[in-house]
Write a structure and sequence with these properties.
Length: 396
Amino acid sequence: MQNEDRCIVHLDLDTFFVSVERLHDKRLIGKPVLIGGSSDRGVVASCSYEARKFGIHSAMPMKMARKLCKDAIIIGGNMKEYSKYSKIVTTIIDEEAPIYEKASIDEHYLDISGLDKYFGNYNWASKLRHRIIKETGLPISFGISTNKTVAKIATGEAKPNGLLHVPADQIQAFLNPLSIKKIPMVGKKTYEQLLSMGVSTIEMLSNVSIEKMDMHFGKAGIIIWNKAHGIDPTPVLSNSERKSISTETTFEKDLMDSSILKQKLIIMVEKVAFQLREKQKLAAIITLKIRHSDFTTHTLQKQIPYTAFDHILNQEALDLFKKLYKKQNPIRLIGIRVSGLVNGKQQLNMFEDSPEMTKLYQAMDNVRQRYGEKYLKRAVGIKTSEEQKDEENSRD
């Protein structure tokens, strides 16, 4: 059953990357803006509402986006700036909200249950929203309801730059006419499968039996069924910590040479491991992602002892690569992610590591922090002059 006394707020910074760019360049306001890689192999990371009118959306190949909107302004993006503004918003929320959860760089959940006795939940959320807009200049949308799912859906309906409150007694009426795509967890494959079952709206989904959802989708189907009925007991976790660190690379040309791919992978692992140590985090899970030339994507993950050391993560990543790599299938993209993060500095592994190893990492990190990551790399990650020439010639 649903707890109608809960009050959950979902905040989402509208077209966040684009909005930050517009703070620095007012000429971008009102223009179709795309954030992402500018090459034909790049993808759209974010786009303005003006660009969306042309059918452009995030994760779309940049080549296709340019065809849809020839006048679009393409910006490579500045993650350092986006992170800075994200932290500003989080700081404001931290000062105001009793419990909050940072779900991503541009969205948060707040549990403000009980505040209505003193301030009125809608008024409190409205004041917080206006403070964020005033202090950052960024547009932001809010959704308010009794749980995370309905609050998030409400935020989507409040966009752009709006606030929507869905009281407990209006939840089903609010959800019913909406597309099933509005439900968190309903991705492309689930959406297509539901459509094949004759289900297109949340009202139609709510009329499907829970047994049928369980039969077709398993446990996920039961969760989706509950969401369609406005039921979501998931708590707001009082934790603003980052849940994972990842990086991925799309190659200019599809690669098949395992030695080159391993070299690329080690460079990426080295980058992720440095970020772990810089943030004083340890990882418990490592995930490898490979996308082939036909766009089929495969991932494989492994539980590992808590670590932030390159040499340990490298071995784990290479073991995963060995399992996923197929000689005859060209690779377009490779990515690495570490998750299951906890606060803490790397402890010595009494079987493998030595104090000298720890001191070496500290010295390496000091150099990177002072001069930048690119100035210190493992030998395996450094291209020879011949490799650099070959790479340059392949681009000509």
